[in-house]
Amino acid sequence: MILCDAGVLLCLVDRTQPQHKAYKSAVMRLAKPLVTTWSCLTEAMYLALHRGGWQMQKQLGQLLLDKLLTVYEIQESDYSRLLALMEQYRDRPMDLADATLVVAAEKTGYRQILTLDSDFLFYRIGDRDTFDIIQV
């Protein structure tokens, strides 16, 4: 399975994004569903509302309904790891959404990620393994 960051989620539904067609095409040929977190989906929904209103949010929600996207649930036992990651990468800085994707990778073993964020070149899974960023 492939992890998916908020920027790519927005790119999939916002036709004004320069890489919209490339990511939409890539997602159609990649294994599905993509995996994201509620933090990433919330961030994408917020951006979608401000860029395209309810219609763009509806398109984003449709990814869930069409089972092209699934949500990895962060557990209460993960909270301290999230904060530790945000502290560790505070120089970047790491936001909560990115931290949830690192935790999801640590818990599931998924290393492949769709992201527009170059910070994933620096983040480490379990403080040692790198992400396999899918180039589109």
Structural account:
The protein contains five helices and seven strands. It has about 140 residues and is α/β, with parallel strands linked by helices. The chain has one domain: 5'-nuclease (Rossmann fold), CATH 3.40.50.1010. The protein has a five-stranded parallel beta sheet with strand order 3-2-1-4-7. A two-stranded antiparallel sheet has the order 5-6. Strand 5 and strand 6 form a beta hairpin. The two termini are about 15 Å apart. The model has no long low-confidence stretch (mean pLDDT about 95).
Can I get a quick summary?
With 136 residues, the chain is of the alpha/beta class.
Unreliable spans: none
Biggest sheet layout: 5 strands, parallel
What is the tally of beta strands? 7
CATH topology: Rossmann fold
Count of individual helical segments: 5
**C-alpha Rg (nearest Å):** 14 Å
Q: Main sheet: which strands, in order across?
A: 3-2-1-4-7
Total count of domains? 1
User: In percent terms, what proportion of residues is strand?
Assistant: 5-15%
